[in-house]
Amino acid sequence: MPPVTGDATRERIIDAAEACFGRFGVAKTTVEDIAAAAKLSRATVYRSVTGGRDELILAVVVRDLRRFLDRLAERLRRERSVSEAIVEGTLDAVTFVREEPAIAHFLVPEAAGHMQAAVAGAAEHVLALCCEYVRPHFEQAQRQRTLRADIEVEGTVEFLFRIITSLIVMDRDRDDDGLRRFLRTYVVPVIAAPTSGRTASA
Q1: How many CA atoms, within 13 angstroms, populate the side-chain half-sphere of residue 173?
Q2: Spatial CB neighbours of 137, under 8 Å, sequence gap ≥ 6
Q3: CA distance linking residue 96 with residue 70, whole number of Å
């Protein structure tokens, strides 16, 4: 059997961490749990992931975030309307997080302290990653005057993140059509150019 490379070992550990976070929750998962799930020693885990559990939490978040952003970029390429891209992209994000146990566990109260410690120092990295994916579509929409000219991508991404998080944490049992109506009424007008917003709600 060929030796496992450093990158392969790290991926194996991240896979194990994601499985453990989904099974036990973030707060209750230990490095020992992750090492056992990866079938590696705790020393090997610490050598491969020098930041320990906090680094693993962030690694899981970023990997899942990239997976979602790949899907989002494809949707943005397909959508003809900026308003519908906002609505359907937000709906996709809410669905994605709800269906990803590892991500969903980060939003429950018992994990809040751990998530804050892990991600607070890397918030700019996460925001930059999202902006990297969204920026080309954002700039094109502003050139076409379908997006407000006085807003910037960083602030818009942060705003949508806050909306998505609140929709997940404060689940009001809306169905998809109800959520679409909510987004078209209250979120689209904040981002889309006025003519685009009126067209979308018509």
Answers
A1: 0
A2: 73, 76, 77, 85
A3: 12
Which neighbouring-strand residues pair with 192? 147
Six token digits for residue 159: 């705003």
Secondary structure of 33-80 in the HEC alphabet?
HHHHHHCCCHHHHHHHCCCHHHHHHHHHHHHHHHHHHHHHHHHHHHCC
Measured CA angle at 194 (ends 193, 197), to 5 deg: 85
Q: Are 156 and 138 in contact (CB under 8 A)?
A: yes
Model-level pTM? 0.68
Q: How distant, in Å, are the alpha carbons of 14, 23, 80 from that of 33?
A: 12, 11, 46
Q: 100-144 pLDDT, tens per residue?
A: 765 665 555 555 555 555 555 556 677 788 888 888 888 888 888
H helix intervals, the chain: 6-24, 31-38, 42-48, 52-78, 82-99, 101-106, 112-119, 123-143, 153-169, 176-186, 188-191, 194-201
